Amino acid sequence: SAQQIETEAASWLVVLGREQVSAEDRMEFKRWLRQSERHRAAFDTLSALWGEMEILKELEDIGEAMTQTPELRPPLMQRRGFLAAAASVLLMVTAGGTAYWHHLRGLDQVAAFETAIGEQRTVELVDGSSVEINTNSSVRVAFSRGERAVELIRGEAHFAVAKDKSRPFTVRAGSTVVEAVGTAFTVRRRDGELVEVTVEEGTVALGSTQSPATPKNALPDATPHAHLTAGQSVLLNEAVETVRQLPKVELDRKLAWRKGVLVYSGEPLQEVIDEISRYTDLKIEIVDPALAAKPVAGYFPVSLIDGVFQALHLKFGIHVERIDSTHVRLSSAG
Asked: Can you tell me whether residue 127 is helix, strand or coil?
């Protein structure tokens, strides 16, 4: 989070102010600085707060040169006590100054995030929101002082939105626009323009627009569809197709992918395989329609595809045949 990065940056000011800075510390600082532009910006910003004292100007080389960390010069060593005290004050300031940091540096963010097939990741955004990105998905973020706009280019993502009434949080998926202030919801792009939205907490507004799919707050100019509240799920294209109020157990099943599992309670095998196929490069073929309609129930870990095949064989009597390294065929046993 931004607060964690700020605190770490202030801690590094203490470390670098010591009389003796070990080679391990210097290497660790360089690794920390390389983690992201946010780490670099946090260090530069906190250093600038003390720039008038000229204490930290001698550390500029460290922040700018990524291949070499210079030795600390004697004037800095002689004033290390003051530097440590100043950095300690910074630690206290950053503990309660996250809002100020967001005001100065946390309003703007333009970035793109992707996951490969079978990969899942969580991204912390500068406003304090988080995005959990499912397999084979792509998300683009464009935050500014006036809006927090996200585009789901493909796949599925879960958004936990930090409250900021002055900047509504919008997610565009094709022609569908979802707007929230402080809530948690999932958006999934299915075949064509079909989009599925599931609300875990709070309320979201749904709209659509035929303007180009760019990360922009389009809801005010969009055609309003509906408002969804916690536990509701909807499929929509140019119009709302189906709105359902999900029992908690079904809501938990729908969001179980965030814990690395897929949960089923009697869905047809074909539906199960379609979902599992999102997490693997394997082509999984079901031989006959009767088997495809067979009801399946259970927990299937998305990271253990071989375990899924084993469970289908042992629990449901399904014969699993590996045609080659990229092709698996499912058929009725015997």
From this structure: coil
Give the C-alpha separation, 242 to 180, whole Å: 20
> For 277-283, which contacts have Cβ atoms below 8 Å and span 24 or more sequence positions?
278/117, 278/134, 278/135, 278/136, 279/117, 279/118, 279/135, 279/303, 279/305, 280/117, 280/118, 280/305, 281/117, 281/118, 281/326, 282/326, 282/327, 282/328, 283/326, 283/327, 283/328
**Cα 60 to chain center, whole Å?**
32
Neighbours of 18 (CB within 10 A): 15
Angle at 28 between CA 22 and CA 30, to 5 degrees: 110
Q: Coil, helix or strand for 294?
A: coil
DSSP string spanning 100-115? HHHHHHSS-EEEEEE-
Closest by Cα among 233, 279, 237, 277 to 255:
233
Residue 211 is encoded by which pair of tokens? Answer: 């303007």
Task: Locate 212 and state its tokens.
Answer: 């180009």
Measure the CA–CA gap between 70 and 53, rounded to whole angstroms. Answer: 20
Query: Rg for the chain (alpha carbons), in Å?
Result: 25
Number of H-type helices and E-type strands within the chain: 11, 19
Q: Are strands 283-286 and 327-332 parallel, antiparallel or unpaired?
A: parallel
Spell out, as residue ranges, where the chain has pLDDT lower than 70.
3, 13-14, 16-20, 46-107, 209-225, 238-240, 334
Q: Report which residue type is found at 63.
A: G
Record the pTM: 0.66
| φ, ψ of residue 193 in degrees (nearest 5) | -95, 5
State residue 18's pLDDT score: 63
In sequence order, the β-bridge partners of residue 138 are 114, 154
Q: Are 223 and 236 in contact (CB under 8 A)?
A: no
